[in-house]
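Exam review. A common question shows you a sequence with its structure tokens and asks you to describe the fold in words. Practice with the pair below. Do the first one on your own.
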Amino acid sequence: MSVVRYSISAILLLLVGTTSVQAQVSGKQTLSHLKRVQVVVGEVPEFLRRGGLSKSSIRTDVELALRKAEIEVITNEESLQTDSKAFLAVEISALQGSGPAENIVAYSISIRVNQVATLTTGEEHPVWTYETPGSTGLAGKQRVGYIERSLMDQVEVFINDWLSVRDS
């Protein structure tokens, strides 16, 4: 049992450590001029896809939530025509346990915004300008819905932050 506990603790430390460093550079004020956004979903681990969580279903759920909040969702081609070339990146990292912990999944969810920033030299560079606090946790392998709910909670954080600076 101690080997299982150690493995799970190490996985969570890796996932939490990565997320917390990036969260320090985020700021919702960077959303104030963002009028519309493209949704980009990262690769979903195979074992989560087998459980019913796909890039397509995630994109559909995220885009629907954004549209309900009256945030315009655009295509990649449309995004390239905007000044900010902004996109909302949705990423799920997950590791499946092994041995006695084979039915446990450690996961990390990240929602970030990438926009083009113009330097004082006039050069433009894509940068991460915003990130939700993220979500990490453990779930049973058969409880993919729990991970999906955690993802949508992070999407709600983004929506609330976006709306709070749009109304000011």
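Now try the second one, then compare your answer with the model answer below.
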Amino acid sequence: MIDLLSEVAQKVKDGVMAVVKTADDVLTSLRGVVKEQVVGSLRDVGDVATSSLEVLVDVVDGAITGANEVGSSLTQVVKETVTGAVMGASEAGGDVITAVGQVVRGAVKGASDVGGDVGGAAVSAVEEAVSTAGRLGASTADATREAAVGAIKAADAIGSEAGSSVRKALLSSASLPKDIIEAAIKGSEK
């Protein structure tokens, strides 16, 4: 399964780079490419069960890495990638709330892989994932919780400094409900 996931990440990275290099509107193109890659990857995996949504981490990570290599703003890349990935997961029949957590994990991992600000990327990813989930009819409170947990898990896997940075960034965001963020942080420390 790990080889399949790294293959997916490389395929997405290559696909994103090919499209984004030739696009007039890089960010709009990025959203569409990511959405298509998510739908295709989930269909390739075959079963859109919760466990197969783990492929979203690699899809998002690969997309951010690819878009970063063509010189796009990390914040905008994260936002467009997250939107495309959540929309793609929904279109493929995946659970939007579960997808949100996986997509945000991939965004934080991708930001770290390119040497970006993981705290800033986490906030952008959580905000965009929640907004997209809400537009798709999902509970924004549930999406916020799942997105925050995904960001924290990804950051903790990177290291204690990244974990601390993400927690502080999420808590200091004026647009995220502090009570839900605090509960996600408390739950991650168990």
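Model answer, second protein: The longest helix spans residues 2-22. The chain has a mean pLDDT of 84. Full marks require stating both points clearly.
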